[in-house]
Amino acid sequence: MRILVAALGSPGHAFPLVPLSVALHDAGHDVTVATGPDVEPTIATTGLATLAVGRPMFEVFREVMVAHGLTGRPTSTQGTREVAGEVFGAAMPRLFAPALRDHLGEHPADLVIAETGAPGAALAAAATGTPCVLHSFGRRPMPMAPFAVRVREPLARVAAEVGIDVRVGDPLGHAYLDVCPPSLQEPETADVLAGLTELPLRPTGWNPPTPGFTARRRPGTRWVLLTLGTAFGDAGVLRAAVEGLAAPDLDVLVATGSVDAGELADLDRDGVQVEPFVPQADLLRSDDPPAVVVHHGGSGTTLSCSGAGMPQLFLPQGADQFFNAAAVVRTGAGRQLVGPDATPPAVGKAVRELLDDGPERAAARALAAEVAAIPSPADVAARVTEWARPTRPTRPTQPEM
């Protein structure tokens, strides 16, 4: 089969689609991954064929924020929803939909796998009559979440621009690859999948090669991974966390992500290692994994840690991170500190308690067992001919975000 996989150009959106893409390629299918130009070279390190689409997401976000009179990240929930709704519902789909429609016209595919944050790809599939399956990157969205509602109208306008008549609010595609284990889902989100065939897919972390990275460990010490991801980093929060974690019997590996590592270079010392990026997925699967992960609550990191059986301490900063944190805390597999509560003493105390072989660690093991029972990317790829096409004709409709 010829398969086009499409995702927005950010690690949090694109990386979760890599394991299935590789599994489909290894099964003998012709796979091309279309993503933003800032991420496309990274995905190409897998050996998969790639296609750069649109523009870097940070540029698009900046332009939309400027248009809204903002000089920095929105400080209100209302502002955040307005900016995100325009970026994900109009600006990015307007870049993806026509470009991928034209690509599919020149290079017909048997299947499009569209990341749920990239509905422009699903619109392109509908415009060319190509079967489309949606691929999640995290939990299912709440049916009436303000962000989801704000995306619908602008997305319908983009659909009209590429010549598609859609009903606002209906899914565009016939199936949904769900990478989130049931215990982390909200029960009321099951209706989001109405009309779609649900395909459970084990969340599997992926990271690109990290040349030159070598973890520093002091003999006989456990270690903690600290990161705030690639979208909502905050040097002050990372600095406070390091202050609370640094101790003679505990090593700390800091992945600064979107924060310039130079801002925290003074923290790098015996027992604290500061790096821009680390091979996170490889570290979680290694023979010497972190004892606890302290992080922002991004979907990819949350699901990867859940699958690895790691107790998690959440320091959520924005977007869906607060909801991901709450979901894991509800299972008993972690804790969270929000805003001003994330003081150095509080971070240190929480991690010390998570290091113990207590209820959180037992809950983390149970969550990992749940993830392990979900079909792997290789298992799902082996059955692609079963789910690549709808079982009955469907009217092209709009993706639910």
Tell me what the structure shows.
The protein starts with a strand and ends in a 14-residue tail after the last helix. The protein has helices spanning 11-14, 18-26, 40-44, 57-67, 77-106, 119-128, 146-161, 235-245, 280-284, 299-308, 321-331, 344-355, 359-372, 377-382, 384-387, and strands at 2-6, 30-35, 49-52, 111-115, 132-135, 175-178, 197-200, 222-227, 250-255, 272-275, 292-295, 312-314, 334-336. It is α/β, with parallel strands linked by helices. The protein has two domains: 2-203 and 374-387, 3-Layer(aba) Sandwich (Rossmann fold), CATH 3.40.50.2000; 222-372, Glycogen Phosphorylase B (Rossmann fold). Residues 393-401 have low confidence and may be disordered. It has a seven-stranded parallel β-sheet, sandwiched between helices. It has a six-stranded parallel β-sheet with strand order 10-9-8-11-12-13, sandwiched between helices. Helices cover 39% and strands 14% of the residues.
Could you give a short description of this structure?
This protein has helices spanning 11-14, 18-26, 40-44, 57-67, 77-106, 119-128, 146-161, 235-245, 280-284, 299-308, 321-331, 344-355, 359-372, 377-382, 384-387; strands at 2-6, 30-35, 49-52, 111-115, 132-135, 175-178, 197-200, 222-227, 250-255, 272-275, 292-295, 312-314, 334-336. The protein has 401 residues and is an alpha/beta fold.
